[in-house]
Design goal:
The protein has 317 residues and is of the alpha/beta class. The protein has 14 helices and 10 strands. The two termini are 32 Å apart.
């Protein structure tokens, strides 16, 4: 059996990304109920709000789910204690060093995955004792590596660097792209953008609608002096782009970003002045569907393409 499925006790090797302003209990429980591993995104929640989402998620599914915790979160200790108290089985960490919390979580019986953007950090994860690695390429919407390494290059590089169960992230939204990632050495996929534009996502409807209308080139990696994210090209993006072109400092970019900019866009629906994060794969998303249908589409296509390739695409030279 697949190592990712074994580790997380799930039917399909699909993890939903823990995305800010998208990944509440409704999305996480729907993904878990559909056979994957749903993640609640702690990055946009106060500790007491996270606890409420965990309690609701436990009522909505009897299957494993997890919490994504950006380690730069200011109240990370409170969040970790809530996760332990609520007996959440899986934690996915990102945006920080895995050695700070991995041992503590594992001592309390929690499975730990960590998100990386390079083979170097994948090796650090193995030393820190994580159970699985999520390697996220440049195509992703969330926090990216400054090196801009694509998923196609990153996965085989990380596969060489570590023996741990490996999930690919960045640019994956379908069974075909998941199969491609697995051919490169991944054992599953973490999918963000496709689930962000599901019916159960807590993102604003206007944000979901805008994503379904984006074409190629509708996003760009930005804010590299802060924490690199991929943004939809709206008025706020243009202000960021102009500032970066003019050599704005990290402090100036922080001032431009302000507080609550992502909430303003993705959660409250300001499509002009909000920070709108989404992956490059947005150009392939044309419909807002329920999670169950998205998962069925992914697994059906994965199995179909795999059979096709086994039949007709073998070559001898």
């Amino acid at each position: 059996m697949n190592r990712v499925c074994n580790l997380f006790n799930i039917k399909y090797p699909v993890i939903q990304g823990g995305m800010v302003w998208c990944s509440g209990w409704k999305l996480a429980s729907a993904v878990s109920n559909a056979g994957g591993l749903g993640l609640i995104g702690a990055g946009s929640m106060y500790p007491e709000v996270l606890e409420e989402h965990i309690i609701k998620c436990k009522k909505a599914t009897s299957l494993p789910f997890g919490v994504n915790v950006p380690l730069m979160y200011p109240e990370v200790e409170k969040v970790m204690n809530i996760i332990v108290d609520q007996k959440v089985p899986v934690v996915s960490t990102s945006a920080g060093s895995p050695k700070n919390w991995t041992g503590w979580l594992k001592e309390r019986g929690i499975i730990v995955a960590h998100v990386v953007s390079s083979a170097f950090f994948a090796q650090k994860c193995e030393v820190a004792g994580v159970d699985a690695i999520v390697a996220e390429g440049f195509e992703a919407g969330g926090h990216n590596g400054r090196e801009e390494t694509t998923t196609l290059t990153l996965i085989p590089s990380v596969r060489k660097a570590t023996s741990l169960p490996l999930l690919a992230a960045g640019g994956i939204s379908s069974g075909r792209s998941m199969l491609a990632a697995m051919a490169l050495g991944a054992e599953g996929a973490q999918i963000g953008s496709r689930f962000a534009i599901s019916e159960e996502s807590s993102a604003h409807h206007e944000f979901k609608k805008l994503v379904t209308e984006l074409g190629e080139g509708g996003t760009k990696l930005s804010l590299k002096k802060l924490a690199p994210v991929r943004l939809i090209k709206n008025e706020f993006f243009k202000a960021v782009f102009d500032a970066e072109q003019n050599g704005a400092s990290a402090e100036e970019l922080n001032k431009l970003l302000g507080r609550g900019r992502a909430k303003k866009g993705m959660f409250e629906g300001d499509m002009k002045e909000g920070e709108l994060e989404i992956g490059q794969v947005a150009s392939l998303i044309s419909e807002i569907k329920p999670v169950k249908q998205i998962m069925t589409d992914i697994i059906t296509e994965y199995n179909s393409v795999r059979k096709e390739m086994a039949k007709g695409n073998s070559f001898e030279f």
